[in-house]
Batch of 2 targets.
Target 1
Amino acid sequence: MHPAVQARLDRTLGQAAQRHRAPVVRGFGAFLWDKRWFFVALAIGAVLMSFSPPEGLDRRGLILIAMSVVAIILFVTEPVPLPTVALMIILGQVVLLGIDSTSVAESLMSDSVLFIMGSLMLAVAVVKQKLDKRIAYWIVRMTGTRTVNVCVGISIVSGILASFIGEHTVAAMMLPVAITLITLTSEDSRKVRGLAAVLLFSISYGCSIAGIGTPSGGARNAIMIGYWKEFFFDPTNPETAKFLVDYLTWMLYCYPIFLIQLPFVTLVLFYTFKPEHRNISRAVVKLREQIRAEGPMKSADWVSIAAFAAVLSGWLTFSDTLGLGTVAIFGAVAFLVIGLVRWEDLNSGVNWGVVLLYAAAISLGVQMKDSGAALWVANNFLDLLSPLGIEGGIPLWTAISALTTGVTNTMSNGAAVAVIGPITLKMAAASGESPLLIGFITAISSAFAYLTVIGTPACTIVYASGYLKTTDFLRVGYRMVIVSTVLLIAWASLFWPLIGL
């Protein structure tokens, strides 16, 4: 983590400790007021759990839904530090669900969590070698110093890379670049609040909207391709060969949607946050001076680049067998062994609370899926559509997109498609809609996880910078959801028919 960011995080933690002091120090009334949303969330959870499970949902599923509601309220209102919510999720699984503590502990350390942890370690290593400054300067030389152009450049670079190698990787690469530009503009976070938001969300949203572009952009895409083949392909029927969607066919239908969303990312971000600096030329001057002072790239710089390139290559070639997380940890170990970064740097620079938060969120999402609670929510949502006459066409497409968006903001997009995909594809067959069209809408909508910190790894990674609040995600996220949904439905209705869907 950049030293200035770490210092700001320390100040923030100190302020948080001041807010969360014991009631005997600050007065019981003040304590209750500060924690009001904490107690409101617990009360709502208790009320939900007091009900008898509805038809199709067992007691375990009801408890999980209550836990999810409580967690979402605490994520948004933040009456306690977010890692506290993660610890509460862990306790809830053991105490309320009766799951063995060892099983809960095992569920916390998935490959995705290893990836988040390893990626944040690699980000610290990149900052330590000051490669982030050179990458930032390269981007600014292409875009110019106007803030809007820099944001467009960051979202384009992040998006194009993420569409082929996955959003996790790119977000980890680009985070130090944005932090460099922010801290060189001002080390006082209050003076760059809006600037930090537009730069960091440019990374997060650039990565998220790009993940739909190719099958390799995210696990959700491969899952949907597998469902099409499993549900609709018949080797004896040549007409079903269209359900064998290959790499280029996916790009033909989905890559343009990524491209048309790019300019809207910057428009929405600037409308929401209004950065304090319309031009970051002063930061660029400082950046250029620092790079000149450091002189030509040294042998350690080239070794760092080679090590990071090896990690990227590993993500591309070995992630299917070893996992993204294992490759990331390999990279962190390599930087430590070579001596390019010290453990003390990683220990102080990585936001371990964010790692814990993401681990607990994934664990809760897995339980929602395995218990059938997520499936129950999806089925009941779709049952609500029948009385409204939403049985096909654009209304059905919009409803499916909304359902997928809601689910994907509470669990990983891959898990969301795994749960929702079979339901929406069966609805397509029953309503006479094209399973390909409905499948594309489902997979693409799973990228609209803009509302929560734990929506996607890219959101979690940029939140780890310490510059963003949980309410920032909700504040800009709902606008992005509306824009992305409108663009998706417009593209599906106007252009997909022209290319044979």
Target 2
Amino acid sequence: MTNANDFFYVITGGPGVGKTTLLETLSRMGYITMSEVARSIIQSEMRCGGDALPWGNKKMYTERMINASVDDYRLACQSYARQIVFFDRGLLDAFCYAGMVGMELTKEQKELAVLCRYCQSVFFLPPWKEIYTTDKERKQEWSEAVYTYHVMKKTYMQYGYKIVEVPCVDPNARAQFVIETCLKNR
């Protein structure tokens, strides 16, 4: 028997690897997608002049990412139980970021990783220099993007997830790969 969380797939990787484009493609195909909480927080903070930003108050930014990730997970459980849902990053992305900025997670935060489990297979988009760009919300240099990818993989594996590498192909082919992989696991 499958659990509700077996239908919740994380699509992740370092910054600027095409996650959002892939999720937009999946959404156009009729799949349920959950937006990236980190970018939403950055946009909100920039609009209101707040400081919960990766280049500002990193602790506050990380705590907001964790809380927003949990909120999105709970919303998916309430609204989309037993339906395939694709998340643009997951809770462990926030945990990874916390480690990268030297923030110690609380016992309660660590317990969230058990309460908010996604499908064991996590889709990772590898660094892809040909499509990488920075913008006002993504300020990481290429080397930092590659480093983030490797730390992210390590974080997910430490929590018992299986890494599924998504090929560096056009968005439609990536979406087809993701869907076929999901269906193969049913």
